[in-house]
Design a protein that fits this description.
about 250 residues; alpha/beta; Rossmann fold; two-stranded parallel ribbon; 7 helices
């Protein structure tokens, strides 16, 4: 399933694609999707402008209406991707039992959707897995993400790549690996609630970028400290992956 204006990635061109306007979905959306046993929901617009009011003024109500409609029509198993920004400015290792403290509109809207769906479970029977994604990289990621920007700079022959100081600790996971985790979680067909989808291992942004440049022999100087650190995320945080790997181990 995708939005009507979405570009279909070439690897998916041989699969059945259903275009649905999430802001104004048809009443028979569940039937159009083939009455699936499991739905993995990745959709969210307005990124990477994390501070935009769009997230809770427009995106949140539209996403909830759409998912509620599917559930009322018969959907029994739902996996929704959340975000590590739901933890807010909390530092260090972040685990699922920690309370959400979102500090930007995007994190707030995502966490609000989770709460709405959990309340909905009191009236409609369905399994919910809330997969909190941390930092992803790999083919298909947003063009303004760190790795694509670095790749374009190298391809242009730039001598210098401007970035932050790079000392912030983050949790990075290849997008392909995160996709496999989402499938594994979905196939459990259980009500696992919040699950961090992450590596569980912190790494500095500086070390990560230096590793990318050395691995492929990219010749470019890294200009650390050119950009300030983001004010909407702490300097050091990463996910605890114990729950994720425990679930995956049980299903292996």
């Amino acid at each position: 399933m995708c939005r009507p204006a979405a570009k279909i990635p070439l690897p998916l061109s041989n699969y059945e694609i259903v275009s649905i306007d999430l802001e104004n979905p048809p009443p028979n959306a569940f039937d159009l999707l083939g009455q699936p046993d499991i739905l993995v929901h990745l959709a969210w617009s307005g990124l990477p402008n994390y501070k935009s009011l769009h997230h809770f003024e427009e995106e949140l109500p539209a996403q909830y209406r759409f998912l509620k409609g599917l559930i009322k029509s018969g959907l029994k198993n739902l996996v929704v991707t959340g975000t590590c920004f739901e933890y807010g400015m909390q530092s260090g290792p972040l685990h699922e039992e920690m309370g959400a403290r979102p500090s930007n509109p995007y994190g707030f809207a995502k966490d609000a959707l989770r709460c709405q769906l959990e309340y909905l479970q009191k009236f409609q029977a369905f399994n919910l897995i809330w997969a909190r994604l941390f930092y992803l990289y790999g083919e298909g990621q947003a063009e303004n993400s760190l790795l694509p920007q670095l790749m374009r700079a190298v391809e242009r022959g730039d001598k210098m790549f401007n970035m932050s100081g790079g000392e912030q600790l983050r949790d990075y996971l290849p997008a392909a690996e995160a996709g496999k985790h989402l499938v594994s979680l979905a196939m459990t067909v259980q009500n696992h609630g919040i699950v961090n989808v992450c590596s569980g291992t912190p790494i500095s942004v500086r070390k990560l970028v230096e590793g990318w440049t050395k691995a492929d022999g990219r010749l470019i100087n890294l200009n650390f400290g050119h950009y300030p650190y983001n004010d909407y995320e702490p300097m050091a945080f990463w996910g605890c992956a114990d729950k994720l790997y425990s679930i995956i181990k049980e299903t292996a």
